[in-house]
Amino acid sequence: MNQHTAINTDARSVVLTIDSFNNAAFDHGQRDSEITRVLREAANRIQDDLSQLNEGFFLRDVNGNPVGSLKVISGEAPEFSNGAALYLAITLGNDAFSENEPGEVSRIIREASKIICEGKGSFPLRDINGNTVGKLIISTENDDDDDSVNMELALSEGRVYFADSGYGGISDGAFRYAITHPDTPVGYHHDQVNVWLVNAKGEKSGDLYSVREDSLTELKGEEIIHIKRVINNEISLEDHELLFEDSNEDNPSM
Predict the structure, then answer these.
(1) How many degrees, rounded to 5, is the angle at CA 210 between CA 225 and CA 156?
(2) Following DSSP, what letter does each residue of 69-134 receive, concatenated?
(3) pLDDT tens for residues 72-107?
(4) Consecutive H or E run containing 23
(5) 237 and 174 Cβ atoms separated by less than 8 Å
(6) What whole-number distance in Å separates Cα of residue 141 and Cα of residue 130?
(7) CA 102 to CA 54: how far, in whole Å?
(8) How far apart are CA 35 and CA 237, in angstroms?
(9) How far is residue 111's CA from residue 24's CA, in Å, rounded to a whole number?
(10) I need a labelling partner for 225 at 20 to 30 A (CA). Which of 85, 154, 198, 218 fits?
(11) E-assigned strands of 28-65?
């Protein structure tokens, strides 16, 4: 008997993107409230209306300007949408969508808008049964101003390292990860690179540090997996830190 898992060729995904926050509707501290309004308007349009979901539509800001789109694509959605300021993806097809697909998609988007109101920038999306069916990601374009960095996106871009914990190093307790600033990426013969010092949730310890490129240590596969578990709220930051206490190392092999 063939033991290979069959590929679901009928898989479909909802992809919602906001292209940029660089217009007046998102200015003056109104970014999150305008994102919330755009998401709720999208949720209202597709609730109980399969044609709106299947055909897709443009998203507009409060001033009527087009700022993004919602569409259904074949297959699973990409991990990230390069260049988008906000990326939301939902994989359809499980039991939660069987009776009222547009209604469940609408509910998920509406729940995402509530979480945005709480100040969270990136998080997993869950269906009515608690299963993870997608994600919402806000770009790092505002990392300079925010108190945290989009850790999931930074991991995907290969910008997360262990900070130096030795003499003169910047590692400080849970703030052990260095995220390179996009302006000074590793591997381009910079003697010094600018980094944020963060914990596993992406919370910053302060402003940018300038460090030697060779003071950064690349993460291993299992270390990345454990950070992702913190991001997805599968384990707490405190439980994550116990891994380091148990090993008595700053970058243990987990």
Answers:
(1) 25
(2) EEEEEESPPPS--TT-SEEEEEE--SGGGSS-HHHHHHHHHHHHHHHHHTT---EEEE-TTS-EEE
(3) 999 988 877 667 889 999 999 999 999 999 999 999
(4) none
(5) yes
(6) 30
(7) 9
(8) 28
(9) 25
(10) 85
(11) 57-60
Q: Say how far apart CA 60 and CA 56 lie, in whole Å.
A: 13
C-alpha 127/C-alpha 93 separation (Å) is 11
3-state class of 46 per DSSP? helix
Q: Which residue has the tokens 């994102």?
A: 35
Q: Parallel, antiparallel, or unpaired: how do β-strands 177-180 and 160-162 relate?
A: antiparallel
CA distance 12 to 52: 15
C-alpha–C-alpha distance, residues 247 and 124, integer Å: 29
* Those residues with Cβ within 8 angstroms of residue 66's Cβ, 6 or more apart along the chain or in another chain: 58, 59, 60
Q: Render pLDDT for 163-196 as a digit per residue (tens, 0 to 9).
A: 988 767 888 889 999 998 866 777 766 688 889 9
